[in-house]
């Protein structure tokens, strides 16, 4: 169980890591009395390959394929366990 939690924590951290490279924070000083902070989109965020991966494949893999595979696997294990237990009670 701890291995599963470690995997989930690692995957979640790695999933969120690219978000920090999507924006740039700059402080611009127009005059001594006026300064402003500006948040702009970085070059990584506007790169076509990153946009396609982040908006399409990343979402499909993380929110679609991995949860569906885990759900199928665990449901199959539950079904096989119930079937095994019920066969054991029939034979007695």
Key words describing this protein structure:
alpha+beta, two-stranded antiparallel ribbon, 3 helices, 2 strands, 68% helix, 15% strand
What does this structure look like?
The protein has 92 residues and is α+β, with helices and mostly antiparallel strands. The chain has three helices and two strands; from the N terminus they run αββαα. β1 and β2 form a beta hairpin. The longest helix has 44 residues, at 48-91. The chain is elongated, with a radius of gyration of 24 Å. It starts with a helix and ends with a helix. The mean pLDDT is 79.
Helical/strand content category: alpha+beta
Mean pLDDT: 79
Beginning-to-end CA distance, first to last residue: 33 Å
Radius of gyration over alpha carbons?
A: 24 Å
What is the β-strand count? 2
- Helices and strands, in order, run as HEEHH
Low-confidence runs: none
Question: What overall geometry do the principal axes of the alpha carbons give?
Answer: elongated
Q: Into how many domains do the coordinates divide?
A: 2
Layout: helices, strands, pairs:
Elements: H1 2-16, E1 23-29, E2 35-41, H2 43-46, H3 48-91
Antiparallel strand pairs: 1-2
In a few lines, what is going on in this structure?
This protein has 92 residues and is an alpha+beta fold.
